[in-house]
Amino acid sequence: CSSNPCRNGGTCLNLLNSYHCLCPSNWEGPDCATDVNECQLFSGKAQGCQNGATCVNGPGSFTCTCSPEWSGSLCTVRYDDCRNAAQDLCVHGTCIDADRVTPGQVAHRFPTGFSCEQLDPPAATCSSNPGSSPSNIFEGSNIPICTCPEGYIGNGYGPSGCTQTSNICQTSSPCVHGQCVVSVDLHLAFSSAPGYICICNSGWQGVNCEQNINECASSPCLNGGTCSDGVNGFTCSCTAQWTGPLCQT
């Protein structure tokens, strides 16, 4: 064994006028010089490439070329294109994963026959988005367009998608410090809470006029004065050397 006859990490056992090599599992032969063909050895077994992958043998190892739908060292991890994208892609529907046909392709589809949930009052009327793709593979927006019945407003999705315009302000009283006005403009309805906008009282802001405007944010008190925020106003506590509403004198 003094000549180190065992190659590729083999262990040499010194014998009488001879030697024997204990080879790693990926090498064989008297001197561990012959590569084990793992593709042949592991064919059809759990240790080899799975799910229709192509095995490529190399010196001391092997690699798997996966089909488009699979990944991982042995191609045992299936792509699920809905897992991380479903919330963005299917805002009002269920994302169903589809098989990838080409490597790197993202494939998902929406279930057919989407309809708005039954509401009380009656459900909105939904139709296919004219800009959607006829294919099951997602290529654009195929979320249906829903229109609320007369006297109701909203996007039409889900059990609270349509709100009666005549009493939303009276029944909900959503504006904490302001006046509730029924919105007849769908853009306004989408930008705030469904079906109404709030006209805030002085000193208040927010979708529901729930946030007190901080008049001290602009640092109005001068000469080291301390600002105390109020509702639609502020007061300045001046140092001993200064006076006036803004400690300016």
Could you list some keywords that capture this structure?
249 residues; mainly beta; Laminin; 4 domains; two-stranded antiparallel ribbon; 20 strands; 26% strand; elongated; cell membrane
Explain what you see.
- The protein is mostly beta strands and 249 residues long.
- The chain has four domains: 40 residues, Laminin (Ribbon), CATH 2.10.25; 72 residues, no CATH class; 44 residues, Ribbon (Laminin), CATH 2.10.25.10; 35 residues, Laminin (Ribbon), CATH 2.10.25.
- The protein is 8% helix and 26% strand.
- The protein has a two-stranded antiparallel ribbon with strand order 1-2.
- A hairpin with a 5-residue loop joins strand 17 and strand 18.
Number of helices: 4
What's the order of the H and E elements?
EEEEHEEEEHEEEEEEHEHEEEEE
If you compute it from the alpha carbons, what radius of gyration comes out, rounded to the nearest whole angstrom? Answer: 36 Å
Write down the overall mean pLDDT. Answer: 75
Q: Structural class from helices and strands?
A: mainly beta
Distance, first to last CA: 99 Å
Helix share, percent: under 10%
Low-confidence stretches: 86-92, 108-122, 128-142, 185-193
What is the 3D form?
elongated
What's the β-strand tally?
20
Largest sheet: 2 strands, antiparallel
GO molecular function: calcium ion binding
Subcellular location: Cell membrane
GO cellular component, one term: plasma membrane
Pfam families: EGF
